[in-house]
Amino acid sequence: MKKFFALALTMAVAVSALTGCGGSGEETTGGDTAASGSISVVSREDGSGTRGAFIELFGIEAENEAGEKVDYTTQTAEITNSTAVMMTTVAGNKNAIGYISLGSLDDSVKALKIDGADATVENIKSGTYKVSRPFNIATKADLSDVASDFITFILSDEGQAVVEENGYISEGSAGTYTASGMSGKIVIAGSSSVTPVMEKLKEAYIALNPDVTIEVQQNDSTTGMTSVAEGGCDIGMASREVKDSELEKGLQPTTIALDGIAVIVNQENSISDMTSETVKSIFTGEITDWSEIA
Amino acid sequence: MKIVFLLAACFSILAVALICIFLFANGVPAIWKIGVLDFLLGQKWMPANQLFGIFPMIVGSVYVTAGAIIVGVPMGILCAVFLARFCPERLYKIVKPAVSLLAGIPSIVYGFFGLVVIVPIMQDLTGGNGKGVLTASILLGIMILPTVIGVSESAIRAVPNSYYEGALALGATHERSVFFTLLPAAKQGILAGVILGVGRAIGETMAVIMIAGNQPVVPDSIFGGVRTLTANIVMEMGYAADLHREALLGTGVVLFVFILIINLSFSALKRRRS
């Protein structure tokens, strides 16, 4: 029986030694700034609208010899499947680098300047900050009158003002909107990235047309496109370009706003400016240590 | 009244049958289209380039599950022994509900706990990003505890008390009687608990996805990032279209086969016991 107690005691000692190490490790590493140390690249999952736009804009996606587009994101990149996990990961790891939608940016992480330009709405509009992607809606040809009136509203001065107020970028408007006094029901479904701004547009529209009910269902880009094609909803939302296979089903895409993508690092990171070439080298795995960045 | 019971029974059978049909009808053609060997043994998962190899994910699921067993099973069995034979009654009233509560915590909460507690500790210990096989194993080890403890405890309690008394009468101490007569007699029940735990670990998704790193490569060390079959499906399903979507359903078929094997071995074990 003694054997068991000896074993239990050994395990207890081992466990306390490990936790002891954990505690002291925190104290010693806390003061460092991340000017050195291997880079933890954090990316989004394949097929994510944010990832698709990111790799395209930074040239991480390139054509191979056969002319196919290949995503060269390093295979050792950590993959997260949501903006929230991405931000928690980067906020908790001083060697991490990742990217998120500009609209979701907060103080828990630091957004890098790209080629000297801050990630702000103004810089995206003036063209100095080049990392942005479209928010699309898609409809079928047999659109109801009330749904097409809502789209007219989205693209009007008033609708685009709502877009701007929420931190996204307007693509220019199509004149002023006058309330049509219509009634009916519109069902909208799709991307969780587009949903917040769509909710705001819905509120503004209903204030003008109280007889209309609008239902916004949040799921994802592909589900949104599929349900429009199958008649499950009137308008679909996508945070990416509409795919060819979806266009073949008779979908008509419209861009309603632009969203910037911010490259984020830990608050303790001393680097605040990066060229787009450096970002590309990090995400393709050519640069693996912070000390390689001057 | 009988017919109501029959309908209730039929409903669950129907649900299983429909899921099977849906999964195989959608997943199997994709596996054929990609090629069975390319799909199961392919090392590269690059959906944008029509490369659908899930070998890294199969290995990932196996590694993480094995790790969870190493972490969770010894702890679980010892805890079950304690609960069944060593625990004072007043303490039992606290420990038992606590263990049951562990089973009731939603997995996303486990995941968040792992992300904000275990991952930073691992970062300090290993210097990497703290997400990987070991982190996932520890968290899954905790998650399978209630399953292992619950089934093992009832298995130990099911052993006739005469075994224990017989050992005592032969001069064995309390500990020796428990570990050398009760535990071997409850062996099959405990093994059943372990198998159920394996089922839970391999099917776990939301917690693992937050702490495993999710790189689609075969991990090179226990600190390396890993992507499981379940994580692969959940992460990309939202955006996938066409063959990519079918390949994810194919991943589901592979996972389903895994679970089927586990359940079959569980019922084989049960049959042998009776």
UniProtKB/TrEMBL annotation, chain A:
Domain PBP: 33-158, 179-292
Signal peptide as annotated in the record: 1-19
A Pfam family reported for this protein in Swiss-Prot or TrEMBL: PBP_like_2
Statement: the UniProt record of this protein carries the keyword Lipoprotein: yes
Top-level lineage group: Bacteria
PROSITE patterns xrefs: PROKAR_LIPOPROTEIN
InterPro entries in the cross-refs: PBP_domain, Phosphate_ABC_transporter
Protein's membrane topology: Lipid-anchor
Location(s), subcellular: Cell membrane
Keywords carried by this UniProt record: Lipoprotein, Palmitate, Phosphate transport, Signal, Transport
Subunit-structure text: The complex is composed of two ATP-binding proteins (PstB), two transmembrane proteins (PstC and PstA) and a solute-binding protein (PstS).
Known role: Part of the ABC transporter complex PstSACB involved in phosphate import.
Family note: Belongs to the PstS family.
Protein name: Substrate-binding domain-containing protein
Organism from which the protein derives: Anaerotignum lactatifermentans
Lineage: Bacteria, Bacillati, Bacillota, Clostridia, Lachnospirales
